[in-house]
Amino acid sequence: MIILNNSSSSSSKHQMQRNNNSNNNKLGNSNYNNTTTNTNGAKPMYNQQRQQYNNNNGNNGNRPNNMYARPQAAVASNAAAPQNRYASNSYNNNTSNSNSFGGGTHTSNPHGNTLYTPISQLNIYMSKWTIRARVTSKGAIKTWSNAKGEGRLFSLDLLDDSGTDIRATFFKEAVDRFYDLMMLNHVYTISGGKLKVANMQWNTCKSGFEITCDANTEIHEVKDDGRIQRNVYEFIDDIAALETSCEVNGNADLLAVVKSVGPVGTVTSKRTQQELFKCDLTLVDQSNTSVNLTVWGEEAKTAASKYDRSPIAAIKKVRVSDYGGRSLGTTSGTNIVLDPRGEDVGVQRLEILKSWWRNQGSNVSHSVKSISGSAGGSGRMVSFEDRKPIRAIKDENMGGSASMDNKPDWLTVKACFTFLKKDKEGGPWYTACGNADEPCKNRPKATMTTEGTWHCDKCNRAMPNCVRRFIFSACITDDTSTSWVSIFNEQAEMLLGEGITADMLYERCFEGSEQEMFESVFNKANFTDWVLKCRVKAEMVGDEQRVKTSVVNLMPVDYVQESRDMLAAINRM
């Protein structure tokens, strides 16, 4: 029998220390045995199970298989960490291959014995946790303002090897500290953030929680060992399934070919009054169906060069809309990967799409069905096949049903402007309220008072100046008929050319002496070809019902693409 003696002599203690500092033994240098052994080499039945990993004795021995071992606090060392095979969800956190940034005290262990919490197990009752995850999506910096103040923020989507992703949002000082350092597809350890219940209206991640990060959040970039996927997709069957299997205002993952890129346009945000850039991409796949995807911001500005070679795109978390049939739009959580790897999206799925595009889809004469712009909608252009001639306004009695259901009909037509009615008294514009904020936003009519100010009935304010906005009629024609259309400010500025505004023409031509310039601007726009999106609606004028056609969007004809579309249409005849 072996007797444990806790009152060993000083010499015994020195002997134990020499034994523990010896070269690699079968158990490694871990102070695993805190007692002596008998002369026959038998191990004691009882020992102290307090394991110490890498206690700076310069010995990288193997670790004992102790499932009850608790990790020790971080120590400063440049030694490479041995792989911890005995603790679930733990990884090597070798500081020689990592970058660290953040505030506060470092809590992750550079020696690899930190136990990382799976994202799937995070909850709001946890005060201390560390996750190891890949950045799968990175949003742009946004500004916010409310009664509590104002500031900036940006969001990331993080994915770990449990297959669960979570949204992390950075505020104020954390934006300056982390935005340029957090890179898409890089792997990081993150701790010190605050967990809260996710707002599932805007958060599309699988986790029911989200992380709020501040300047005290601690982040380490670690070596990518390939254990975490670049993304986890839940693809719908194909584009045609958007009409039957996807809920409106829901999200979808899609693998498709970017067939064509539309022109870059701008819209004004109703909430912030900021100008936003947008661009429509046409996606196709082996279901012989196409759909429009709208991208925004910097993605829209670079779309022409980024998607010009018709790449295959793996698109995660796009918003499904019934805006003009079925259409898609990117959100802050959308991630688009071009020419994805087979192991990420499925080898068989990828090969089917590649084969279809190579043998059929890329052929100019191959026709596909568009599910975008086929019904309703506003400014979205439809495909070449879905355009209609001007005479369809009368032949199909467009606008005639508006008196019953108050819904307009929509028409996309290629036409030529033959006359612009610019000789309205006072000019082809109206004087709008000078208030750019709610509720007016420079839209309601303002009238001059006897004091020389401009009064708006909507906001009941008198402003020193007004804003002039274009409004005039024009005649368009194609090979089937002609029609009068109404042109409003945004469309008029596109038609008349860049830099031409109603205020500018008024100042230079009506208050100044450049009358010839006024005539030249309108004459230059005459007899030009455009693709027009029009709203056709019946309106009551007095006791008489009239059908009014208004241009809501227009773009110049791309003659190269137009020729290709015409040749394809001829080949299908």
Descriptive terms for the model:
single chain; 573 residues; alpha+beta; nine-stranded mixed beta sheet; six-stranded antiparallel beta sheet; 12 helices; 25 strands; 16% helix; disordered N terminus
Describe the overall structure.
The chain has helices at residues 10-20, 173-178, 298-301, 303-306, 342-345, 347-361, 392-395, 402-405, 489-496, 502-510, 515-525, 559-571, and strands at residues 99-102, 130-138, 142-146, 149-159, 165-171, 187-191, 194-197, 209-213, 218-221, 251-268, 275-285, 289-296, 312-321, 327-329, 335-338, 369-370, 409-421, 429-432, 446-448, 454-456, 461-463, 467-477, 482-488, 529-541, 544-556. It has 573 residues and is α+β, with helices and mostly antiparallel strands. The strands form four sheets. Strands 1, 2, 3, 4, 5, 6, 7, 8 and 9 form a nine-stranded mixed beta sheet that branches. Strands 17, 18, 22, 23, 24 and 25 form a six-stranded antiparallel beta sheet that branches. A five-stranded mixed barrel has the order 10-11-12-14-13. Helix 10 (502-510) crosses helix 11 (515-525). The radius of gyration is 34 Å and the shape is globular. The N and C termini lie far apart (100 Å). The model is unreliable at 1-98, 102-113 and 374-379 (pLDDT under 50).
Task: Give the structural class.
Answer: alpha+beta
Number of strand elements: 25
Whole-number mean pLDDT: 77
Q: So how many helices?
A: 12
Global shape: globular
Low-confidence stretches: 1-98, 102-113, 374-379
Report the major sheet.
9 strands, mixed
Helix content: 10-25%
User: Distance between the terminal alpha carbons, to the nearest Å?
Assistant: 100 Å
* Percentage of residues in strands: 25-35%
Rounded to the nearest angstrom, the radius of gyration is 34 Å
